[in-house]
Amino acid sequence: MTDRQMNDTELEALFAAGRAVRATPSAALLARVMDDAMAETGARATPEPRPHGAPRGALAGLVAALGGWPALGGLATAGVVGIWIGYAAPGGLEAVTAAMLGSGYDVTDMVPSLDTYLTEG
Q1: DSSP characters for 6-74?
Q2: Quick one: pLDDT band at residue 118, thresholds 50, 70, 90?
Q3: Residue at 110 is within a domain
């Protein structure tokens, strides 16, 4: 429908016609916009004073610096679990570390196999 390509002269003529017609707002509209702007500026000129909270203690400041009570709860849980694992020393962990660290690696383990990609069917 409108796939016609315009050349530069046609395009320039179109832009010139657009530049020739200037729509100017009326003086009444500009006065109303200015009145609204001045009313809004006057309303925003006096900010409301913020209420000062009660002074915080050292513990409250530390809790806030760590991220609040949820973060402090996670930190306490991680600390207790770390102490528990360190003190209880689970016996099953030795079998896992022996199986993982006791074996060595061969060069063929480092090269990926393409057998699964090359199978047909």
Answers
A1: P-HHHHHHHHHHHHH------HHHHHHHHHHHHHHHHHHHSPPPPPPPPPP-HHHHHHHHHTSHHHHHH
A2: confident
A3: yes
